[in-house]
TrEMBL record:
<keyword id="KW-0486">Methionine biosynthesis</keyword>
<comment type="pathway">
    <text>Amino-acid biosynthesis; L-methionine biosynthesis via de novo pathway; L-homocysteine from O-succinyl-L-homoserine: step 1/1.</text>
</comment>
<comment type="similarity">
    <text>Belongs to the trans-sulfuration enzymes family. MetZ subfamily.</text>
</comment>
<feature type="region of interest" description="Disordered">
    <location>
        <begin position="1"/>
        <end position="27"/>
    </location>
</feature>
<dbReference type="GO" id="GO:0019346">
    <property type="term" value="P:transsulfuration"/>
</dbReference>
<dbReference type="GO" id="GO:0071266">
    <property type="term" value="P:'de novo' L-methionine biosynthetic process"/>
</dbReference>
<comment type="function">
    <text>Catalyzes the formation of L-homocysteine from O-succinyl-L-homoserine (OSHS) and hydrogen sulfide.</text>
</comment>
<feature type="compositionally biased region" description="Basic and acidic residues">
    <location>
        <begin position="1"/>
        <end position="13"/>
    </location>
</feature>
<dbReference type="InterPro" id="IPR006234">
    <property type="entry name" value="O-succ-hSer_sulfhydrylase"/>
</dbReference>
<dbReference type="GO" id="GO:0071268">
    <property type="term" value="P:homocysteine biosynthetic process"/>
</dbReference>
<dbReference type="GO" id="GO:0016765">
    <property type="term" value="F:transferase activity, transferring alkyl or aryl (other than methyl) groups"/>
</dbReference>
<keyword id="KW-0663">Pyridoxal phosphate</keyword>
<dbReference type="Pfam" id="PF01053">
    <property type="entry name" value="Cys_Met_Meta_PP"/>
</dbReference>
<dbReference type="GO" id="GO:0005737">
    <property type="term" value="C:cytoplasm"/>
</dbReference>
<protein>
    <recommendedName>
        <fullName>O-succinylhomoserine sulfhydrylase</fullName>
        <ecNumber>2.5.1.-</ecNumber>
    </recommendedName>
</protein>
<dbReference type="GO" id="GO:0016846">
    <property type="term" value="F:carbon-sulfur lyase activity"/>
</dbReference>
<keyword id="KW-0028">Amino-acid biosynthesis</keyword>
Amino acid sequence: MKPKTGTDRDTTRSWRPATQRVRGGTMRSEFGETSEAIFLTSGYSYDEAETAAARFRGDDPGMTYSRLQNPTVAMLEERLCLMEGAEACRVQASGMAAMTAALQCQLSAGDHVVSAGALFGSCRWLMTDLLPRFGVEVTIIDGRDTDAWAASVRENTKVCWLETPANPTMDIVDMRAVADIAHDVGARLVVDNAFATPILQRPLEFGADIVTYSATKMMDGQGRVLAGAVLGSEEFVNDELLPFQRNTGPNLSPFNAWVVLKSLETLDLRVRYQSENAKTVAAFLDERIPTLLYPGLSSHPQHDLAMQQMSAGGTIMSLFLDGGREQAHAFLNALELIDISNNIGDSRTLMTHPASTTHYGVGEEGRAEMGITEGMLRLSIGLEDPLDLIDDLDRALAKSGV
Ligand SMILES: *Cc1c(COP(=O)(O)O)cnc(C)c1O
């Protein structure tokens, strides 16, 4: 009997989302295993020399080398495509490998990029340090200001780049408006969707051309592996991303691909549960501290736009204390349950002080421009009971004089 698989596109596209998350992309070997296999192999062998030749010519769909194709990696890519509603996907060794590949595969010297300023620290480095070294000019603007996008695009603008919600400022960017502005000059909109995940927000539905991920975050969701993904049209992925990736080799290991693949089965459950927990904690903090930014609460200045784009507020929020770094560090040090960690999207609740960790390298000027103050903290909510989290936060706030 032919083993059932989840790779026949016509069938899997007709499945409902929960079925796609569990079965989409599954390829079974001749053993009929229920759980997807880990193909830890770098190479493949051929029955005949002519088969090898046919594969390299592209006349035979089989695999040749794991920098080019791997079954476990392919299963993850197909499942991500279904979840994002994208035509094609390639995964990379980390979120930053994904961001770098997404930019370098389509940019050349003389091109121009417009980027929102509020970005993950390393993404900002790509814009301010890496791209200019290769002759790509980058204009950095306040992503919340739609007029600034319109005023900054030019004839040679190839990419408009943003995060929404942004790390760690929780800025929300109007994806539809920016997509229209980008398309008017023939540029593409790339959205780094790490914070919302495809469960809460699907940027392609708002006009984005390319979606990028740090799959290290909610997709793995249990703090185990680094991974990244780039999704878009078949044309973009096959003609631009794939030649870059196959020849430069930022590939994800099959083992790490398997970890993320299995995690996708529960992504919806985790994101929705952690988002509910986050809302409960945010409601407490909103009353208790000077300023809280959580897209799911009406106190967020862009709450309405956030709720047009996202189906819930997400798992992450930013806290602003009045007492600067001293008070922020004292608060972190007073936590007994919540871990001090610069990671996000874990089953454990984690808190960090961006100015001295994730955004230290951005420098004082960059932080000021982005609105990252010395009293700011970023909180990523996990799967614990939110009442225990509130107890811990309440105790630590009191102890640090908030
Ligand atoms: C973490 C993160 C990245 C980088 O991902 P890695 O997996 O750590 O390389 C990029 N963008 C955003 C928004 C992130 O949160």
